Amino acid sequence: MRARRETGEGGGRSKAIVLLSGGLDSATALAIAGSRGHELYALSVAYGQRHASELNAARRVARAFKVRRHLVMDVNLDAVGGSALTDRRVAVPETPTAGIPVTYVPARNTLFLALALGWAEALGARDIFIGVNAVDYSGYPDCRPEFIDAFEKLAALATRAGVEGGAGFRIHAPLIRLSKAEIIREGGALGVEFGRTVSCYQADAQGRACGRCDSCRLRREGFAAAGVPDPTRYHRR
Asked: What percentage of the chain's residues is helix, strand, coil (to nearest 5)?
């Protein structure tokens, strides 16, 4: 596991770690954290996902919001397998499926939040933002309110800052009860340029979306429901 530092500008406000994947949800979570007065620290994870386009999108979003520091951390979950997003031998579904889909990455948000928690403790930050959603989503178990509540309790038990510091950590999931349309409206009001983001599970090297996977479907339907023009670039096939 290794980390690559990418820097920006910042000030002296209270620090917040924001998990930034490069999709529209995490970009909106970043904007919300900034609107609440936090000094922004963005964490992206190169976990062996099918394409690097979302990481490039995360860099664009981080620059646009002038984060104090953008950390890209390498954790090779493709070695673990068990997901269509890390194992190219498993096809990404292009129609809705019953149950938890094969695009679920085992324990991904648990691992990502653990990395964010470690960085937060080292920085003296107490706020961590994650753009999970339990309304318009694919049914992943680590996107539910119960999971966020449980991880916040874990953070208080598992860290020196939680045991000795008194204040503990706050895990913010500001989108968790919003529809995709509401997320798009909120992000747009806070200055998110969604054309910078990539949500597709199988985007090409230029960041163009397939238009057929579950993430593309949810994104497209969200823009339509919000009455906002969809800026997504799609493959021409």
From this structure: 40, 15, 50
